[in-house]
Design a protein that fits this description.
By secondary structure, this protein is an alpha+beta fold. It is built from 5 helices and 7 strands. The protein has helices at 18-25, 28-33, 42-54, 97-108, 126-134; strands at 9-12, 58-65, 68-78, 81-88, 114-121, 138-142, 145-153. It has a 7-stranded mixed beta sheet, with helices on both faces. The longest helix has 13 residues, at 42-54. The radius of gyration is 15 Å and the shape is globular.
Length: 154
């Protein structure tokens, strides 16, 4: 497994990241592992992205090394439950970055309260299952979806 030697940076997504997120969301592997397999249209993505960036209950992080965008982690909060979504750019997959990105994003995310982190994963997405388990999340298979959860105090 090739590990990336350069330092990984995390920043909040901005409106200029819209196209980058659009490219990522429509990558073949991402669509295959998403709960919704259909390709996302540009107009639909544009509206969704603008709302997410402005929504105080959502935080989107972009991960970069040097001048390359590596992936994203998103948090969507509803009461004390925070759903996690993440993806890695195709050319950076298989290098051990998923766990590092998720760990960095969770440390950066601040709610000031006890929260329950939730990740929804399809059973065939072995990489994400491995990442959640290695981070101490417990998973239950319900209706063909793994629901990983972890109590977190941030």
């Amino acid at each position: 497994m090739n590990k990336i030697k350069q330092k990984l940076f995390c920043r909040k997504a901005i409106l200029k990241d819209m196209k980058l997120f659009y490219i990522w969301v429509n990558e073949l592997e991402v669509r295959k592992n998403s709960l919704n397999k259909k390709k996302i249209s540009w107009n639909s993505h544009k509206n969704w992205f603008k709302k997410k960036i402005q929504n105080k209950k959502s935080i989107l992080y972009v991960f970069e090394k040097k001048d390359s965008a590596v992936g994203q982690v998103r948090f969507d909060k509803q009461n004390k439950i925070v759903k996690i979504s993440f993806s890695i750019c195709e050319k950076f997959r298989g290098r051990g970055l998923g766990k590092k990105m998720l760990s960095m994003a969770i440390k950066k995310y601040k709610s000031g309260k006890k929260i329950i982190l939730i990740g929804e994963v399809k059973p065939k997405n072995l990489s994400s299952i491995k990442i959640f388990r290695s981070m101490g999340f417990t998973g239950n298979l319900i209706d063909k979806i793994y629901y990983f959860k972890k109590l977190h105090i941030i």
